[in-house]
TrEMBL record:
Pfam families: ArsC (PF03960). SUPFAM superfamilies: Thioredoxin-like. The lineage of its organism: Bacteria, Pseudomonadati, Pseudomonadota, Gammaproteobacteria, Enterobacterales. It comes from Sodalis ligni. CDD domains: ArsC_Yffb. This is Spx/MgsR family transcriptional regulator. It comes from the Bacteria. InterPro entries: Arsenate_reductase-like, Thioredoxin-like_sf, Tscrpt_reg_Spx/MgsR. Belongs to the ArsC family.
Amino acid sequence: MHEQDVSLTIYGIKNCDTMKKARRWLDEAQLPYRFHDYRADGVTGELLQGFIRRTDWRVLLNTRGTTWRKLGEEQRRQAEDAAGALALMLSQPAIIKRPVLQRQDGALLVGFDPAEYQKFTGRGV
């Protein structure tokens, strides 16, 4: 597969069950994609700012996961605005909701739902 053939990038963490479901869906739909692992490939302020320009930062902040539950009250209060949430996501990438699917045109889809993936990609499984 050539890099120019890849029109999707999926961001997340390799061992996340939801990520595995999303990647399996993309594979079954025969859609080439690039996988960006937050742990292996890193997370930059520039990447997150790009996400925040395309979707609400509240959508990106996973307040239902283990990482959020382990935070102290002071750290949770830090995420009450976009700047604080950005800082928290940079320091704790596992708190970013997964997966984030990005098309080549920059459009984002956060989370995994097969019907939404079908609409977003124009392909079905």
